[in-house]
Design a protein that fits this description.
The complex is a heterodimer of chains A (about 425) and B (about 170). Chain A has about 425 residues and is of the alpha/beta class. Chain A is built from 19 helices and nine strands. In chain A, the strands form two sheets. Chain A has a five-stranded mixed sheet with strand order 6-5-9-7-8. A four-stranded parallel sheet of chain A has the order 3-2-1-4, sandwiched between helices. Chain A is globular and about 75 Å long. In chain B, helix 3 (about 25-35) packs antiparallel against helix 4 (about 40-50) and helix 4 (about 40-50) crosses helix 5 (about 55-65). The two termini of chain B are about 25 Å apart. Chain B has two domains: about 1-65, Orthogonal Bundle (Arc Repressor Mutant, subunit A), CATH 1.10.10.1590; about 75-165, Glutaredoxin, CATH 3.40.30. The chains are: A alpha/beta (about 425), B alpha+beta (about 170). At the A-B interface, helix 7, strand 3, strand 5, strand 9 and helix 15 of A face helix 3, helix 5, helix 6 and strand 4 of B.
Chain lengths: ~425, ~170
Amino acid sequence: MAEHILLRHLDLPDIDQLDVYLAHGGFEALRQAVTGKTPSDVIEIVKASGLRGRGGAGFPAGVKWSFLTPNVFPRYVVVNADESEPGTFKDREIMERNPYQFLEGVALCAYAAQAETAYIYCRGEFWDLTRRLEQRLAELEQRGLLGRNLFGTPYSLHIHMHLGAGAYICGEETALLESLEGKLGQPRLRPPFPAAKGLYGQPTVVNNVETLANLPPILARGADWYRTIGTAQSPGPKVFCLSGHVNRPGNYELPLGTTFRTLIFEHGGGIPGGHAAKAILPAGASAPLLMATDEVLDTPMDYESVAKAGSMLGSASVIVMDETVDIAWVGWKTTRFFKHESCGKCTPCREGTYWMLHVIERLRAGDGAAGDIDLLEAVARGMQGKCLCPLGEFAVMPVLSGIERFRPDYAALAGNGR
Amino acid sequence: MLKDSHPSEIETILAHYPPDQKRSAAMPLLYLAQSAYGYLSPAAIAEVADLVGASSTQVGSLVGFYSLYHDEPGGKVRMQVCVDLPCALKGADALAETVCRNLGIRLGETTPDGTITVEGVMCLAGCDKAPVFQSQESDGIHYHESQTVETAMAWVEQIRKGQADG
């Protein structure tokens, strides 16, 4: 793609300066929306654009907003900036390098939702970034681009930063809301969904950083323009996070539907040291492992095609592993992660991640019984479809797919013990 | 008491939330208390609970749940090395082990002079610049990316020198 829509700092390095952003049309979309469009006009444009949530679930953003319970106020917009999925580092780059486009997107979403207060929930580790965004918000209020009676209209908007404190589960939207209320970050039973009862029991929109960064260009250039990028079902640009065994790891903004091969070999410069790719995790730790076959490498990265190939696109955090990597070790790393991050609220996830890790560590210690692979699989299947939120479902994916698709790596560890 | 030592910070934090939803301020106030006292003692937790109108049990449970709060004193600086999958593929485990060996401690321990605690932590969202560690210090949390043993040890020496001078 010649022009960067989301990682605009790659074309305009000073776009993190407010005056530079304004000189390139910044906050025009917001001004035109607030002074000339109704909130439902904005929702209709976003629906027509086909923008799907970029946090992982891929749910159409405009549709999500239209679920807000009518005529109940105040409403809230909460930004999910709790970026914690292993292999995901796109929201951080957007907020650091193209911050005003993101903040304008938050404001557009708030206007569409008729919310006068928005919170940006950043993971606690983004301490320095949060301080910087606080300064930028103050600057925007001073310049009349946020705050009371925006552009001389009755609409007012205040955006606040809120820091988490180290809990992956807070990326789950209802756990995030609990955390923002000063409670443990544990998911709520749904329904009710946040659009009906969210923050403080009020109608709430929760969207990911990247999703919101799409809004200013959609509003400025129209839904038809947006649909010229990507595929019919998955329109628009996407930031792909490429990490692991590649020569040029990083964020790459490409149309949805770009193949793994193009991302890894053309943009990422291939695998270092003359090695071959063995496995791919397309959505961080939270998806089934794919074998890096020609068929998989030629799969277009859109929500439907990656599902057909046997995994999920999720947040598009592509972790590449070369043939030196033991997939049972990968299973240990991901299970360790999910066991640590399980919030403890529901039994299948709390106990399941504990026992999966126990069996994998026994195998790795050379103390595994012949039946331990079956046991591991049984624990994982015992969790599937039974957990309160997706964390538990995610935890089993790299393990079950590893056993199924890379069985020799597990078999090499089994049967050494009793 | 925080009320006496940091009144304006407390007021700024509380102003972000609706007046009847003060409990939302518990997490930012815990950061304030941790920065003021070095760690979150039962007395510090009680202070925060009092400020937000929640019980000490409710606020104390946050300290156990969230990994960036600490209920016992550690080194003056916590060096938190990401050892999750993408960083581990780039040698993060070996980096953490070597740094610990050089300091004569094990992962999770504090140097005998009380300066640095080295910990292994989960993904920090810096995978394209792996290996990565963050330093949790009294003035906040800072990232250190694209690390080698040499750059990590150079940072350690700088911290130790700063502590010795300070």
